[in-house]
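Our consortium's second objective concerns turning raw sequence data into structural hypotheses that experimental partners can test. To show how far this objective has progressed, the report includes one record in full. It was chosen at random from the queue rather than selected for favorable results. The single chain below, 440 residues long, was entered without modification.
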Amino acid sequence: MNITRENIDALNAVVKVDIVAEDYQPKVDKLLTDYRKKADVPGFRKGHVPMGMIKKQYGQSIMVDEVNKLLQDSLNKYITEEKLDILGNPLPRVQDDFNWDAAAFSFEFELGLAPQFDVDLSPKKKVTQYNIVATEDLLDEEVKNIQTRYGKMSSLEEATEHSNVTGTFVNEEKEINKKATFLVNDLKGKKNEKKVIGAKVGDVIALETKKLFEDNNKLVHILGISEEVAKDLDVTVTFTVEEITKTEPADLDQELFDKLFPDGSVKTASELRAKIKEDAEKQFEQQGDQQLLNAVTENLVENTKFDLPADFLKKWLATAGEKPLTAEEAAAEFEKSEKGLRYQLIEGKIMKDNDIKLEYAELVDYAKGFIRTQMAQFGNMNPEEKELDDIAGRILQNQEEAQKLQSQLISQKLLAFYKENMKFKTKEVSYQEFVKEVYK
């Protein structure tokens, strides 16, 4: 057997594999002999079927199987030994005049080669790193929410500006029929407030959905519709009042503090605000980190220039899935996946050049940390180590779940690397400002 390679250019190559009878015939002969020993053919004693009959019936199919196995093994070995960094899988070239009756065979495979490039971690335009702080207004709002949540509720005869109104929203055309509760002063505009203020149980009020609430997300939740539908929804809904209540805010006293923090760590309103600020900014940091990773990814893809074997990848995509794609479908699929492929190559380059590795033990610890968090939400604060090990083992046996956790852990490692090795433009913002800038 002989394997040769012709480099078409820096990104494309053709590998030719020549196989002669001496490469596969001994294995074929052994298998035919084994078949003969086991063959049960009428008119012949077991093990005494003429070899000619065995060859005629099984010879070519066994030979084809053995040649294909030899071809696959030798090609994979060649790629490994030559340290070829390929994209996709080798694509066999179709040979119209191929003949399995020949004694020797030649096979050709197209390879798409990964590009060579360098990654610049000092881009001219610096990425913005947001430091999201909890403002006094946000703390005021959260304290108010806590007081409301733990407050005392009483019934009212008619709705006021600060009352909670429960009822059913109906619009037959849009198939809306949803019972919900809202605070009157969450309504947008005096016109809507006037329709509800003074209403009593049993009253039916006609409301326009367009700009009904200050926050459009409330419309999604209250009417039970999607964000896409809510965005352009402009219909009249009838609202039948079923209950009117008012919440007396809880006092900021030790009774409330102990309900919130049973460990007794909060004894004053200022300590409560400090706790709220600490917890909020931890959550903000997670969102800021995710945004930073996204921004760095975009920056690296945009500023790391290299070519891809695009024609090869389109041909490979056309045959890689369960269902073959047309040339147009494959081109569209390549366009959708190109950006992800580019970052995947950049990510691999950064990890290789900077010896960033992921050990299995790290993945197990990460999975156990994830499990601890999940169990804590259900009240199990101190699970046994063996229980964690068992659950982590089961999770990591699931290839899809293992891949997801691995991807998350790699992202954490890369983010830590970027923070240590890249210089960012730092900007302190409130959460509202962050949302406005990042998700505008």
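The partners drew two points from this record. The chain has a mean pLDDT of 93. The longest strand covers residues 236-248. Both points have been shared with the crystallography group to help prioritize constructs.
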